[in-house]
Write a structure and sequence with these properties.
The structure holds two protein chains of two kinds.
Chain A (H helix, E strand, L loop, with lengths): L9 H63 L2 H7 L7 E10 L2 E10 L17 H90 L3
Antiparallel strand pairs in A: 1-2
Helix pairs in contact in A: 1-3
Chain B lengths: L2 E6 L1 H4 L2 H4 L2 E4 L3 H13 L2 E7 H6 L1 H6 L7 E5 L8 H14 L9
Parallel strand pairs in B: 1-2, 1-3, 3-4
The chains are: A mainly alpha, B alpha/beta.
């Protein structure tokens, strides 16, 4: 069964054959791309998982201290303590190309170089739990940024892998078999035409020979 | 040059202000949607968002999943870990592989 209507001509056959070669090459390339993407993705997702576990644990620990600090201190004191932070963080977002997927690379810069600048308050009126909490958060921060990078990369790569996989499957199960079918159909049709032409010629030849013989034997 | 934002209920996020991140205390849906749209248009490369708030803003977050920037990352809030952040990693795996091969043994 020819899926698409094709003209059984020699030109169409050449066109289809060329298309089939391209499709096969594309299929191979896409398959390689998918495999390599998958390999990198699995590495990345494993890292993502461990990072996430670490970051979640860190944040929960910090939150515990924040709750303690909140319980010990008055709300107003707590608010003013964290109202004006000295430190500020900016990120530089670069790009890295992994198998034509652009994944982000973050690099952070702090405005003030000293690590102790995160304590934006005097120690006299605040609870030490607040120091612990802020300290714990700042320890986990590089991992949080790495997590952001990792997780975003995973999301982007997952989308790309899905797209590539669909393309590979479409080529493998629809396009290539369809073209092979059409090529077979055209070849058979052309062969059939050739045979019928040959038979017709043979018949004509027979008829002509018969005519000549009859001519010779006719009584004059 | 990009900035980092933290969104969520106030108790969960006020500590991040000390690190120099921009904190945006939000807890209701409409305000959150508006804020997340605004932050994405502005210069924010990373937006940390508490799981509790992310639960309300799922549609918005889904939209930014395939864009290179910003990266929207879920973090546990003060009320504890709901496992939603891990689920988003799991979702990526399922999308890419077709089935979950990383988390089923742990």
């Amino acid at each position: 069964m020819a899926k698409a209507q094709v003209n059984p001509t020699r030109m169409e056959l050449t066109r289809l054959k060329k298309k089939l070669i391209t499709a096969k090459r594309g299929h191979k390339l896409l398959k390689d791309k998918r495999d390599e993407l998958m390999r990198q993705f699995l590495d990345l997702v494993r890292e993502n998982k461990t990072l996430r576990e670490k970051v979640e644990k860190g944040i929960i620990a910090a939150n515990k201290n924040f709750v303690l600090a909140g319980a010990l201190m008055q709300d107003e004191v707590l608010n003013t303590a964290l109202l004006a932070s000295k430190q500020s963080v900016t990120v530089e977002a670069g790009k890295r190309n992994v198998m034509s997927v652009e994944i982000p690379v973050f690099e952070y810069k702090t405005r003030l170089p000293d690590a102790n600048d995160i304590y934006s308050y005097g120690f006299a009126f605040t609870s030490s739990d607040l120091d612990d909490a802020v300290g714990a958060l700042s320890d986990i921060f590089p991992d949080m940024l790495r997590l952001a990078e990792c997780e975003k990369s995973c999301q982007l790569m997952a989308a790309e892998i899905e797209k590539t996989r669909r393309r590979v499957n479409a080529l493998e199960h629809v396009m290539i078999p369809g073209m092979q079918e059409s090529i077979k159909y055209i070849t058979m049709k052309l062969d059939e035409n050739e045979r019928s032409t040959q038979i017709r010629l043979m018949k004509v030849k027979d008829m002509m020979i018969k005519e000549i013989i009859e001519e010779k034997h006719r009584p004059k | 040059m990009y900035n980092i934002a933290v969104m969520g209920d106030r108790d969960s996020i006020y500590g991040f202000a000390a690190l120099g991140l921009d904190t945006f205390p939000v807890s209701d849906k409409d305000e959150g949607e508006r804020l997340i749209k605004r932050l994405c248009e502005e210069n924010y490369a990373v937006i940390y968002i508490t799981e509790a708030l992310a639960h309300l803003l799922e549609d918005e977050i889904e939209k930014f999943r395939t864009q290179p920037l910003p990266a929207i990352i879920l973090i546990p809030g003060v009320s504890g870990n709901t496992g939603k952040g891990m689920n988003s990693v799991k979702k990526s795996v399922e999308q890419a592989v077709g089935s979950d091969i990383i988390f089923n043994n742990g």
